[in-house]
Amino acid sequence: MFLHQLSLALFLFSCCEPATIKPVNMGTIFKVVVLPLFLSSLLLSLVSSAPNDGLFRIGLKKVKLDPNNRVAAQLESKNVEALRASMRKYHLPANLEDSGDIDILPLKNYLDAQYYGEIAIGTPPQTFTVIFDTGSANLWVPSSKCHFSVACYFHANYKSGKSSTYKKNGTSASIQYGTGAISGFYSNDNVQVGDIVVENQDFIEATSEPGLTFLAAKFDGLLGLGFQEISVGNAVPVWYNMIEQGLIKEPLFSFWLNRNAQEEEGGEIVFGGVDPNHFKGKHTYVPVTKKGYWQFDMGDVLIGGKPTGYCSGGCFAVADSGTSLLAGPTTVITMINQAIGAEGVVSQECKAVAQQYGQTIMNLLLAEARPDKVCSQIGLCTFDGTRSVSMGIESVVDKSNGKSSGILHDASCSACEMAVVWMKNQLGQNQTQDRILNYVNELCERMPSPMGQSAVDCGRLSSMPSVSFTIGGKVFELTPNEYILKVGEGPQAQCISGFINIDIPPPRGPLWILGDIFMGRYHTVFDSGNMRVGFAEAA
What we know:
CATH superfamily of the largest domain: Acid Proteases
Mean pLDDT: 76
Largest sheet: 6 strands, mixed, barrel
Number of helices: 9
CATH topology of the largest domain: Cathepsin D, subunit A, domain 1
CATH architecture of the largest domain: Beta Barrel
Helix content: 10-25%
Number of domains: 3
Distance between the termini: 24 Å
Strand content: 25-35%
Number of strands: 34
Shape: elongated
């Protein structure tokens, strides 16, 4: 959930993505709209095992996916602003890989769209399935006092009266998501994650879960693994208490997400260390640059091995287990969509700007005008001294008929800025002017739809380019089979682009949200002791 709190990993409807995201310190929550996904049904059954390595694991199984269940829900992620970012460098110290004081909790893979596992609350323990979300920080589950939300009747409910370790709190709480909000009140009880028992943990008993999102969810609640800075009500996150109560050896946790939806094991989260069986080589670590989300600095994005130039000056990124897809600036997502042949909604504003101002923009760039001032020079943006900014919404009257054309200058400004980036990229490749103008028009045709939905031809996967991200000076590549979500087989197969657009302006952006698609290819370590995030090829 990076995009605010509950990004239920591309689940049905993205049920839990908060609509807004709050700044990391005070809590402004953002949210990115994730495209509709085709989901199937899975059944969760837990099998405990205690391997000789001393790690406690909970095995997860699932029922075969039903490819006919298309768009079982529309996912929403989160918008963005002061999201989280961090970067990785070097490898894990040997002592972090020891098996002692490490707890492993396997996760369930819901059609590559959501990963969840079991926890228990109270004494005796009451079991719940939750999304483990590095993009939020609260723990919430449905309450037995939830009487007016249908969703509560289809999920496990917490019954405080049946727990001998329950402590009353009563403080009201509400978390806003794109599809609605969950609200309720705080309570305190023991929480068991794997074989770790966290005592006196504050959590939210949800008494209201409106909308179909929660009704169709394959999980009961959410366990946030972000920093306390983004916790609603400033509640102490579960993983903070694991460290404070001395329950884990090292102040870190790691994720392995199995992207093979046909395999029994969905993945695993390890508290207190890493499982060396699930990664190759050494991790590349980057420092957390903004505490709240796991945010770090990221370099350029490459398409087919060629730099786009958009992030050559630096972008921010967030590692978010609660977001299923990869979210980034519309400018680059459009370039990716064009390269992979994704079908998006045509942007009239983009095409209008390209038609009316394309040659002028080209001439200014050839005359070596500053790219960040081009759009202000032609009157589509203003310049604040460092960059072009929107002039706001302005209604223009067509003098010939006296009717308002309703032109949005902020949309024109954005379209112009994208055109500048695209043209600059093509000029750097020594393309002809005609080819560049045609390229810009092609990109306009590939503009993502408002809901982020983009479909691709399953038969073209082998010819699609790789998409890579530069992190900590290293290039992390994703192949088409890794960034395209495929549902079904044969002629009935449906393929969805794993990229969606999200635009966060400076100084909080440009921002990328690296969700499960990225974390599925790269084993990810969240190291709070050293305030860093690490990536290594998953095994």
